[in-house]
Amino acid sequence: MTDSPLPSLHGLFDYPSLDPDTVQQAFAERCVAQRSALATILAEHAQAPGWSTLVAAVEALDQQVQDLFHSLVPLAYEGEQWAVSIDNCYQQLRDWEQHKYQSAELHQAYLALDDAALEPAQRVLLARILQDFQRNGAALAPLQCQQLQQTDSAIAALEQQFLVNLDNARDAWSLLLDDNSRLVGVPEAEQARLAARAHARGDSGWLIELNGTTVETLLRWADERDLREQVYRAQHSLACDLGTDPQLDNGPVLAALLRLRHERAQLLGAEDAMALSLRGKDATGQAEVEGFLTTLLDDNRPRLQADLEALQAEAMRQGLDELQPWDVTYLSRCLDSAEDDQLDARLRQGFPLESVLEGLYALYERLFGLNLTPVETAAWQTDVQALQVSEAGVLLGHIYLDAYERPGKAAWPYSYPMRARHVLAQGSASLPLALISCSFERPLAGASAHLTHLDLCKLFHEFGHALHQVLAGNDDRRLNRIDVATLGADHAEFVGTLLEQWCWSAPTLELLHHPEPGAPAASLQDFEQWLVSKRRWQAVDEARRLRRAWFDVHAHSGSAARHDLRALAVAANQEAGLPEAFAQERFAESFDYLVTGYDAGYYCYAWAQAHAIDAFTRFEQAPAEEAALGRHLRQEILSQGAVRSMTASFEAFMGRPLSLQAYAARRGSA
């Protein structure tokens, strides 16, 4: 292995030294070698399997290819050659995993292990391994297993088509303004950004595209109602039958996808896709999920009605006709006081990325006793920063921070688990490695990227995932991998959302804030007032989120409703209490969470948020005990990884079951 062109699984890679063709060939050779190694393990130990000779040995084989692949994933966005190479490596990895899960001899060897002789974490790991065999069709007859593989391939192809259609539909729309008379009301800094976008494309004027920042800005600030409507309609009719290109309509794609998911679930012995999804989550069944959503919908409905009445009154005051969806964000801002507007303009200029990161690292030092420090390394881009996470001089792991947007890079923030902690046979451990990818607008030379409050929330959220990856402290990597497939969407999002809550703490924001030279410092009262304004007029957005969650649950259930997705979307709008005008939004066709691992689990965002806000009350109620609570949080939640359920970890930290009181209070309804 010393002559292998593949990098070591320890430490940080020298990414610029890697070549896509060489990596692809060497990875394929390693996957082939794994099959030979597995055959040797089975020949020697299948008849009398032991933990170290079977489970640990096969886990080591998985580590050789899985950890390597996940560490190569960032290169997939570094040009066409790398994209092809990483995709081919992924196919090789899937072939290895299918080969393993199709081995009846290996499956029987796992079943022959004496569960009573295992330690608690080993029993959890064995149960997860057997679940993976079941999900991959180990209990099926050969023809059914073949059907499962074909169905999985078809599902993957449709999910990819859904995303391609959405990206192409979004990229196909733009609006170039030759003067800025239509941008009255839009802040000068935002107009300058639109002009820079046009210049980067070789045009003069102001370029409007359907990225989140631009859409949010125009719907909030543009005085011209026609422009708001134009942008709104473009954003809410992506990849549907209202578009000009029928090839980009995701309606038929989604219908076929839901049918195949239902068939897959029934092949695996579940009633429907929702029931199959719940096998990996904490909810006891669909009835509990629906009851949870009903509680949130009922809680939001009075606030929604009050907000809509206030917005309608403001529309009439401005001489507008009936309130329309493209008016909501704009009129919400108009209802804020001039004092709130001035405060918002002053405070949101005080969060330069570098200062925010310093404050974030200081928070983690106070809470968990951790030191996050930059280290020199050769990453896939020169501005990607590597952070060393240590405690009392002991290295715990690393985090890559890829902060800025660039062509070809995903436009949304995410955390990716590149490597998990794993104790090797000789007692040493491979250290965890996580990626945080953001898409902050790249500042001009010598300037800093300034973050909005929403940017702060996203950054803290993704750092929460990455820190969870570093601190999960089990011996086996499978129990330490922080992703939706391992933890379930509810558990994975809970920790990220919990560590996001410090962005809703006025004392924390005061510490993070660094006003520009000459600008007055903000007081704690300023930040408290700012947060109150951020929580105001949120009922419509909450209704839209709950509408998607309700739709997702019912689209994946066995009900006949999923066969008419348009009718189901209208029903979801009614359940959320939104006016009929909002039912024209074609949200299902652009609902990308349906194809990124959150299908039948989008409700988990609300589930995680309810638990996170409740857990954060301990810090709010006892700020002087922050360090002790941080240690307790680390011990009972972060370090546990997948060794126990989210509910068990939450209750161990809180000393009681979930209460929705804090969640309701955050939204002003308690």
Report on this model:
- It is built from 26 helices and nine strands.
- It has 670 residues and is an alpha+beta fold.
- Among the domains are: 15-139, Up-down Bundle (Glutathione S-transferase Yfyf (Class Pi), Chain A, domain 2); 173-238, no CATH class.
- The termini are far apart.
- It has a five-stranded mixed beta sheet, sandwiched between helices.
- Helix 1 packs parallel to helix 3 and helix 16 crosses helix 18.
Describe the structure in brief.
By secondary structure, the chain is α+β, with helices and mostly antiparallel strands.
Topology of this protein?
Blueprint: H1 20-45, H2 51-72, H3 80-101, H4 104-111, H5 120-135, H6 142-172, E1 174-177, H7 188-200, E2 206-209, H8 212-221, H9 225-235, H10 250-267, H11 273-278, H12 286-317, H13 328-335, H14 338-347, H15 353-368, E3 371-375, E4 385-391, E5 394-404, E6 414-419, E7 422-423, E8 429-430, E9 433-440, H16 453-471, H17 484-487, H18 489-500, H19 506-512, H20 524-535, H21 539-555, H22 565-576, H23 603-621, H24 626-636, H25 646-654, H26 661-666
Helix pairs in contact: 1-2, 1-3, 2-3, 6-10, 8-13, 12-13, 12-21, 14-20, 16-18, 18-23, 19-20, 21-22
